[in-house]
Each structure stands twice: as structure tokens, then as C-alpha cells.
Design brief:
Elements lengths: L7 H9 L16 E5 L2 E2 L7 E8 L2 E12 L2 H4 L11 E8 L7 E2 L5 E2 L1 E3 L6 H9 L19 H35 L31 H16 L5 H10 L2 H4 L7 H12 L11 H17 L24 H15 L4 H10 L5 H10 L12 E3 L2 E2 L9 H22 L3 H13 L6 H11 L8 H15 L8 H6 L13
Amino acid sequence: MKMPRVPEEFVRDVWHYQRFSADNLRSAEGKRIEILSPGTLNADTGPDFINARIRIGNTLFLGDVEIHCDASGWRSHGHDRDPHYNRVILHVVMTYGDRAHPATTSSRRIVPVLVLHPFLDLKTYLAWIQSPRRSTTALRCAPYNDRIPQALLAHRLEHLAEERIEFKVRRFGERLRALIDEERAIVCEPYPRYYHNPDEIPPPSSFYTPKDFRAKRLWEQLLYEGIMEGLGFSKNQEPFLRLAQSMRLSALRQFSLSDTEQIIALLFGAAGLLPSSRSVAEEQGRAVVRRLRKRWKEYRPSFTGPLLTAGDWQFFRLRPANFPTVRIAEFCHVLPILFSETGFHSLISLAKEAGISASEKNRRFQAMFESRPDDFWKYHYTFGSRAERSIGGLGSSRVRDLLLNVIIPILLLYARVFRDATLRLQSREMLLAIPAAENSITRIIGRQLVKGKMPVTSALMQQGMIHLYKYHCLPERCGDCEIGVACLPKTGSVVAFHHS
């Protein structure tokens, strides 16, 4: 079949919603392809889809997917020179022209190519052309859910909120068991990142006993990784987590955590974010870089973890105050507080303390993150980029998110492992006391579903809104949702192509 000329948006939608026959997929090189997850649509710079899971031949790959109309788009768009495309595991195109070169990354790896047009028919294209144009953020049930009872809506969001918190607790639990296995030198699967489906997280195993979890260093590494990942926002979560798993807390503890310059040298060095001093125009920045590079050079021969590169980090479309350089430096200044010899047990004690309200406990937790950057990082976004005014440190909204997504789930996990009913109850109270703070997802659900039927005043209820959107609304799993079943018309299949 000869395909008509199509826009890239069409190819992206075909891949996103898997509108093609996947029974006998083959790459342009003739290898069998099995798509376990097409990945998540990426709205920022970099590959079109991230965190895909695809089996090519006999190998399971975890990485990104890039979309083009023709295979020649890879080189013409400069992806062969851009390190942000080094994680691409599949190049999906509609056609493969005679003059197309193999897709190669800047690391010189050849990327397999999937040519889609042999696996779909003309009806798919015609359906896309004729489908109604609506925003990718529009909920399918938005025109029909006005009469959904408040009680059903509240019950659904409360249930999903609990499911989302359990998702976080189980994810940390799985990582904690992986840390135990590492200490036992047990060969096991690499630690995965569970973002696509909560059901992917295995249930707790009876293979472990409470005695296995008693070592404080395990919990501290878990907390260290969780905070580092949380500092990455959506764009830099993965490299921050990789950095925390590469430059372990135990490695930092070979030095005094209060020696902030040494800790910054280690983390920036392992992150690949220490430039050459000659590349920094500002005199003060050059002097700082020289000192840090000297300290990193002394430690580098004993470092056995994998190094990141500057290309692993995203700076595009980030406020300068959220640059990874700023966040790493800020974290280095709170490390001595959070990870002192008694730091972790202080977190447990504060959570369990009687006579203090949950709101006051949350405020005290947030106070632990009040970073006090040195004179250089107080006024710099990078080594060569000076801020016009003082950088305020970790904002209250970011610390709130760390409390919600990292600290309280780890407290709940600790309570579960050691069957501490008091800690569980107090952690739940802290969770309920975190106030709501809107983001793009909660605004969508608020405008198109809640519609003023009920107040949304807690962060916990907003967790239910986020979970609903990510795992039901966005993939259009309306048939698995009580609200969708209750309000959507029973009209058979619906064309699922979206247009901006």
C-alpha cells in the first residue's frame, strides 16, 4: 500500500494509541518487535515518547521512542549529534526513503527502525482526518458528567488517593528490598522505575523478615534517593535518581557532610556537571571550578559507580532557579541536617511525638529543608551564570511535594515493616494535614469533572485527581472508571485520535 503524505502528528497518534496491527511487527532490519509499553508522550524537548518498554529480537529494551514521517528526519533534525537522544531504543517512521541513513546516536549506537505503513490500512488515516478536533487535555466524559452525584465523585477520588499513596509506599518498599539484596550480593533484576502502572509493582514478599530491615543505612539511602529524585521535578527525576544510586550516601560519608565544598565536588563530578575552568568566563566561577575539580580529581580513582554526562540533564524550559546545578548545590547544604547520625531517627520521633498537631509536624519537617547556600550558590544558577538577585533556596511548594511524595510514604513503609500502629496513625494525620496546591492536572480535573460539586482542600484528594487523570483519563480507560461507566453514552467504539 502506498501511503498518502501524512503529518508527523498523525504518526505520533498512530504510535500513541497503537492504531496498527502488532501481530507480526518487524524492524527494518528484520527483527521481531513486541511493544510492552509505547511510553509516555513527552511535551518537552527530547524524544517524542519516554520510558517505553519494547522487546526487539530476544532483548527487552527500556528507553525512549522518536517519531518521524520519514527515516531521514533523524539526521536532518540533528538527533545523531544530540546526547538527549542517546536513550532512544526505537525510531518509528511512516516511510523509509532510499536515501535514509541508519539512525545513530551521538554515542555511536545504531537505533532500530520500525516502518509503520505496512502495518496499518488507509481506513486508519481516513478516520484520523475525519475525527473531531479536540484538545489532548479534554476528558471524554466532560460533556456528560454534570449530573454525577457528589457522593460518587468523592468516593471515587478518595479511593484513588489511597491507591496512589499505596503505589508510592510499595515502590519504596521494592527499592528497599533491592538494597537488601545488594548487601546480600544476591543477583536480581535491575531496580525498575514504576511509573506506568501500579499493578507492575510486586506485592510484599515473605522472603524478608523485620530483622532484614533494621539497618539504619538502608533507610537513609532510601530517603536520600527519594529526595534526590524529587528534586528533579518531571524533567530531571531520572538523572537525579541515577546520581543518588551512583554516588551513594555511604560514599559521601567518607567525608564530613558539613564539608559542603567536598560534597558538591563529589556530586557535581559524578553528575558530569563540572565544566573545564577555561569554559567559564566569570573569574569567581573559574576559581570555584578549579577548587572543585581538584577535589574531584583526588577522589575520582576510588569512585566505582557509573558517571553521568552533561547531556543527561535538562535545562531547557526550566526556570533558572530549578536548574539541576542549583538543586544539587541546595541539597548539599541540607545534607548535614537530614543525615546527621541521629537524623533518620529524629524524623521517626518527630512523626510519633504526642501533643503536637499534624500541621506543626509538617512545618517542622519543612524547616529541615531550609537551605543556607554559600555566597557563590546564593547568586549563581550555573558556574558561569550569575543571578540578579539572591536565590531563595528550596521553595515551600517543592518541600511540600517532598513531604507528600517521599517522606510520608517512607514513614508509612517503616510503620508497615515494623508494625508500628502509632507511627502509621500519625503519618496518616500528617498526610491529611497537607493543604491542596493546584497544578496543571488538578486544574483539568477541577474544571472538567469536579465543576464545583465539592471542595478540594487537601493534597490527599488532589492525589486522587492526579491518579484518575494519569491512569484512566489520559489512556482513556473509561470503562474501568465508575464515573465513566456512569455517565458516558453507550454508543460503541469511539475514535480515539486527538488533535491539538
